[in-house]
Amino acid sequence: MEAFLENARIGVPLDKTFLEKIRKEQIVKNFFKTTRNKYENPFTAIAELADNAHDADAKNFSIDFYKPYYGNERLEFLDDGKGMSLDEMLTVITNYPRTRKPAGKIGRYGRGLVCATASIGKVFMMFTKQTKEENEVSYTVLMVSHQFHTDYVLNDTIYAPCLSYNEKFELVKTEDVDTQNLNRYIMEQYGPVPISEVKSMLQKIESPNGTLIVVGNLENGVLDFWNNPHDILRNEFQHKRDKSLREFLKPLYLDAKMKIRLRGADIYPKKVCEYWAARFEIDFLFQKSWEEPAEVVTVHCGIEVENRESDGIHFYFNGRLALFGYKDMKFFKEKSKRSIGFTAYVNLNGEKFQPATNKVGFSIEEDFQKLVRKIDKAMNKYYEYITTFWITYTYFNQQYKDQNGEELIELFWNDIGYPSAFDPHCPREPLSSKAKEWNLKECGVWIVCCKCRQWKRDHLPLDPNFKKEKMHCSQFHYGRSRCHSLVSDHERFDVTLREWKIHQKVLAIKKEKAEKEEEEEEQVEEVVEVQGEEDGEIYIVEDIPNIERSDVMEEEEEMEEEPEELDHELWEEEEPEEEEYDEEIMELTKGRERDDNDNFEIAMKRRRDLEDLDEEFPLR
């Protein structure tokens, strides 16, 4: 067997007649060269492997680095997901189109494994474990080596030597001994792990099902494993998320169901809206083409008060981050320094909006630019809400009514601890007790329960004796003896575009009424002054006859009933012209009711929002 490969010269096409029995899949020419270029950032390639574990319903995913004394450095990725059979393992390396993953999954066709591993190293070995209903355990080992295909000019076919083991870690022998020996020999020569260590690698999968991926022959100089024993770095970058893999993975998912561990230390997830103030929600209908039905897009807006460098628009697909802090849009260019801290996130349906192959950005640029224009209008609406209503009436309690938008924003930043309002790198000063109280009330304290793995919002400061990584629902201030819910707490994006319109009209009515009362008082004063001059005496306030209160009482009653009437007017005025939109919107809004005590009221608000096709967001 050894003579077969030793007699084959490196750089000369190998006689493939003997290799026909090895499991293989047809691929496009120069497959490895093209796939390596799909992941320019090695962090995105590692995130792709995390996505595979997430789609496999894994609860734990770990990343480790090893430098054995006998060989090259390697990375190991271990999860406790569903595992794979031999046929499933071979399916993930094929380049042919295949059945799509179920709706809601992050991946689409499962092609990311080979592409991601090829961009990190030149060989990967996959160990998988499956436990059947009869408690029968089976292990499978598969290897794909870029170097093997390069050495023997194998450009149009990907050869994947594979071996099977039983629950006692014994090799399952086949009838074709020669083929099995050839598989063992290729793995021994090109694998990142010697065949003698296969048993110890399989023993690392302690769960009933799971997968271990080992990547060897790592790219030299791309990743730094030495300066931080609990992280992987890219030293040529300065921004935290570009430089540190730990920071890169923190906001990767909206949910926290999968615990990620990097080099022996857990990665505590980051909730993207954890430190957002003035939370605001805008819904609009987005239609990619006339033939396709419209899709509801929800923009969750806020002001980042803790880390202002993390502003911009964050795009998620099925709860997985694709673009972080996007600012190439009119809103951020025109507002410039006034837009510091303004942020938003959208969670798009991966079936309707297709992400790029490497999960960075969109696959169709035209759809992305069209969506950006819609979001740009939404951000301008949010900016108007902040500068004309929220800062003046909510934060400062009706102070500074005469200030313009930029002055109000500067006053707000200064008041919450930023001496330089428009410098994104300005550190936040220590907060006063009043500012701490406001910060806690507005943002809350978000913690992942270590048992149910759901986001929970507490309303009081954390107990310093508790570690966030080990807290569970019973330790919260509202806690119970067990996890009280299987869903995350509501993020409190309670203010919508429709509600703000009602606030605007109510304020306009109040202003009009105040002006009218002021005019009446001026008229009464004029009458008193004229009468006093004629009679030669001056009236004091008590001498003025009482004004009849009937008209004023009627106006106050109308004022109390006005919001309901306004709601009815908005419903009628902004109803879609065509009746067919009503059925379409009803279909789009199915299942969007929130699991909360006020879910019925919130659902009705959302129903009215979607029927309120504002002139700022026309469907056509």
TrEMBL record:
InterPro entries: HATPase_C_sf, Morc_S5. SUPFAM superfamilies: ATPase domain of HSP90 chaperone/DNA topoisomerase II/histidine kinase (SSF55874). Residues 244-383 form the Morc S5 domain. Residues 502-534 form a coiled coil. It comes from the Eukaryota. The keyword Ribosomal protein does not apply. Residues 546-581 are annotated as: Disordered. Keywords: Coiled coil, Metal-binding, Nucleus. Residues 553-581 have a biased composition (Acidic residues). GO terms for cellular component: nucleus. This is Morc S5 domain-containing protein.
